Amino acid sequence: MGDSQDDENRQTPRPPIGKKEMRLMNSRGRELLLRYWDFPLFESFLRKHGTSLRDTSVLDAGCGSGYTLELIWNRFSPAKLTAFDIVPEQVEIAKSRGTPATVFVGDITALDLPDQEFDAVFVCGVLHHCPGWRAGLAEVSRVLKAGGVLLLEEPETIQLRFERLLTGDSSVLNTGYSLRNLMKEAARNGLTALESRPLYFGLFRSYLYVKGVSRRVAEHYVARDLLRTPDASRVAQGQEAPA
Ligand SMILES: C[S@@+](CC[C@H](N)C(=O)[O-])C[C@H]1O[C@@H](n2cnc3c(N)ncnc32)[C@H](O)[C@@H]1O
Prior knowledge:
The chain is α/β, with parallel strands linked by helices. The chain has helices at 2-11, 19-25, 28-48, 67-76, 88-96, 133-143, 157-167, 179-188, 215-228, 230-236, and strands at 57-61, 80-85, 102-105, 118-124, 144-155, 191-199, 204-211. Residues 1-12 and 230-243 have low confidence and may be disordered. The site of S-adenosylmethionine has 21 residues, from helix 4.
């Protein structure tokens, strides 16, 4: 009896996200927050740096039930959208939304994707669920092109401590997770923060990172990228003055 219980525990890994949070994540409330709070902030970051995701290749890492896919598709008009989540049921819901995206079951800490595949990666509230968040960040950086952007949002440690009080669990805290350490890890992986703003009254934080360039050169890259977009190429050829 004891043995079969042990076998069962071994074969059934703990889900990365609790049932209550999953319900919250799949709720209309979450959709409204994403639409009117999280994504406008991301969009303002990109606009501020004069960059656009139009006709680019975008990855949504840990897409959950896929509402973020709709937002990315409709707001940013990428040419190609790819997404994954570690929970198969979430992937099924995401696929059923019908957004023109390739969606699959995957683990952010060990991605079966080529190096330097994407112009942009979105990571919305995923790494704080992964004890292997350091490996997750390294994988995200690996699949980003040099000069590509990472749009990231994760909670402050205080939010996780509060969660641990309520649910008795937030195992990521035992792995040294904090936004400070996340930023250090990002720097170690060649990611430079261009923007960072508090979200949800300071319980979370949103970031815009760029890969593979120093801060000064990062500004240079973004300017170069702007010149590559169709409208801006007319600017570059002197046919249209920049706004
Ligand atoms: C808080 S939800 C956020 C979902 C979606 N990004 C959103 O903003 O609505 C976190 C998601 O991360 C996924 N997740 C947790 N650990 C993961 C891992 N190692 N690899 C991929 N996805 C993971 C969970 O299954 C869950 O769907």
